Amino acid sequence: MKAKLERPRRGFFWASLGLGATLTLLGVFPTETGSSAIALTAQRATSGAALDAPHQYTGPGACSSTTCHGSIAPMTINRVKQNEYSVWIVRDKHSKAYAALMGTIGERMGAILGIGKSEAAPKCLACHALDVPESERARTFDLTEGVSCENCHGPAAAWLGPHTERDWKHEDSVAKLGMYDTRDIIKRTERCLTCHLGNEKKYVDHTMIAAGHPDLYFELDSFSAQMPRHWKDSNGEPDQPDGSDPWFDVREWATGQAVQLKQSLVLLAERTRGKAWPEYSEFECYACHHSIVPAEGSWEQARGYANRRPGDPPWNVARYVVFREIVGQVDEAGKQNLDAELSRVNKLMSELNPNREEVATAATKSARLTGEIARRLIAMQYNAALTLRLLQRISSDSGNISAQGEHCAAQAAMALQSLYVAYERNDKFQDSQQLRVAIGGLFEQLQVPSSYDPNRFSRQMKQVNALLR
Ligand code: HEC
Ligand code: HEC
Ligand code: HEC
Ligand code: HEC
Predict the structure, then answer these.
(1) From the CB of 177, is ligand 3 less than 6 Å away?
(2) 67: pLDDT confidence band, cut at 50, 70 and 90?
(3) Number of neighbouring beta carbons within 10 Å of residue 17
(4) Among 131, 157, 241, 432, which residue has the fewest nearby CB atoms (within 10 Å)?
(5) Which is the closest atom of ligand 2 to the Cα of 182?
(6) pTM score
(7) Could you tell me the residue ranges of all domains in the chain?
(8) Ligand 3: does its nearest atom lie under 6 Å from the Cβ of 291?
């Protein structure tokens, strides 16, 4: 196996913070096709045609008028910024998702997998474009536009007209007209994860990774910041009708953690019914893909192989190892319960040939439990004391988290960054600048994942911990 897997981790978003709108400089002039499309689709909606058939998609052009969502500068007069299209087309990688299929790596993947041109393969278009059947297209649009508005917000034909009316309610679009409720953080995360984790129908497995696909990982708050958000930061919290939640990112982080754990357990259970079992991408990648050094220098051997046969690849526990800290803050008994359930999944999965039925049962049970916790986390109050406690707890668990592998370290780094940013916005750390540098140091250590060193990472986490005052 390769000694090094040179694929730097992304997800580090200092750079995207505080970046103002550079759109005008880049000269984006959204098309004006929006208004006529609205008239057309409003007509469809009122004539009822869109109501009985499956809801239809309009493509992003229908949203891009400067008076709709294609404004160059953000507006301040209402809750919507109206520059969503401009942000998406210039700064959001989703608008380049189709183009990614045509790059050197994308095309080579198509050849390796024997699926022909990637940009024509349903296997790829499922996550890289708005690939809906002809019958669900309200007007002509282009797959080349990549992952666009309706991939996340749902088919727009029926609500496009009504949602521009004064006093029209988001809830009405959601209840009757096919809009997806991205305001609900649980549903929002589930939506992101259809592509950023995958499911039984569309997925990125080890075969695709070996052909060149990036390893999928996710964390709602970091990824939302990096996207970047085209909505007002504190928007969209269901229990905050005034739209102002100063701790929105902690809520996003905590709820997102629960949902990604739950969905990954659902996927694991689904995979037990698959042809390839065990599916390699369920494991900690760098258990297999690390550099081998003389025995004296091996951290794996120094760490030992708790609860598994030496050399069997361990299950990737990254979605749990940091999340359990927030569960512990909310409900200690719940944490013990979840600990017990997940160590069962972990033990089963870290055997050489995991028993499919047993894994499916244990994963399904843990998923249910995690779903219940998600509903508590979304409804909870967050504040400075809790945020600080979480930062302290996570950074003081440095030895344990670091030893579980690179994916766990990446989740810890993203968690510390998200919580730091939230705390700094509302309150201030004494050693703010040093902390920022120390957290940046965590990300630096993840640049070459196959040479990840848990001892160094753990030392860096301790440094973060010492600065939390
Ligand atoms: C389950 C959804 C899913 C499927 C199916 C999928 N992808 Fe992706 N792809 C993603 C996501 C999500 C990313 C971004 C990953 C990240 O940066 O975290 C991505 C990134 C990529 C990239 C890297 C783009 C860049 O800017 O560096 C390439 C190339 C790519 N995919 C090609 C393909 C090809 C070719 C196929 C079909 C064989 C395919 N993908 C199928 C979800 C998917
Ligand atoms: C990758 C997913 C994704 C894509 C693509 C996307 N959005 Fe969003 N959008 C979101 C999320 C998540 C939110 C925040 C939750 C919310 O307010 O619904 C949001 C919020 C919004 C809001 C604010 C809604 C409110 O009530 O405050 C508008 C308007 C919007 N998006 C329009 C667009 C338009 C127009 C496009 C295409 C040019 C687009 N979005 C593309 C995910 C997406
Ligand atoms: C329909 C599939 C799909 C959905 C839904 C989706 N994404 Fe993506 N996302 C992608 C693909 C594909 C890419 C890779 C694009 C590229 O690199 O060209 C991507 C890239 C990204 C990136 C850039 C990563 C990088 O390496 O820079 C971020 C951040 C991101 N998505 C966040 C989100 C968030 C947050 C949500 C939910 C609100 C979401 N995505 C929903 C498919 C999706
Ligand atoms: C059980 C061991 C095992 C696990 C776990 C595993 N792989 Fe692999 N991987 C392999 C083997 C074996 C090959 C084939 C190597 C070859 O043919 O040279 C491979 C090939 C690859 C390749 C193509 C070869 C290269 O270096 O470019 C990539 C990329 C890759 N794996 C990434 C990953 C990622 C990312 C994960 C975790 C999501 C992962 N692997 C998990 C064993 C594993």
Answers:
(1) no
(2) confident
(3) 11
(4) 241
(5) 18
(6) 0.92
(7) 230-469
(8) no
Size (the chain), residues: 469
Q: Where are the beta strands (DSSP E) in 218-288?
A: none
Question: At 104, which helix (H) or strand (E)?
Answer: helix 104-113
For the chain, counts of helices (H) and of strands (E):
25, 0
Q: Distance between CA 178 and CA 41 in Å, rounded? A: 14
Which tens digit of pLDDT belongs to each residue from 165-191?
888 888 999 998 999 999 999 999 999
Q: How far is the CA of 226 from the centre of ligand 4 (A)?
A: 27
Minimal-distance CA residue to ligand 3 atom 36: 192
Amino acid identity at 355: N
DSSP secondary-structure letter at 358?
Answer: H
Residue 97's nearest CA partner among 140, 66, 60, 134 is: 60
Rg over alpha carbons for the chain, rounded to the nearest Å, is: 23
Task: For residue 1, give the ligand nearest its CA.
Answer: 4
Q: Are 164 and 45 in contact (CB under 8 A)?
A: no
The rounded Å distance from CA 301 to ligand 3 centre is: 37
Nearest CA to 31 out of 142, 172, 173, 150 is that of: 142
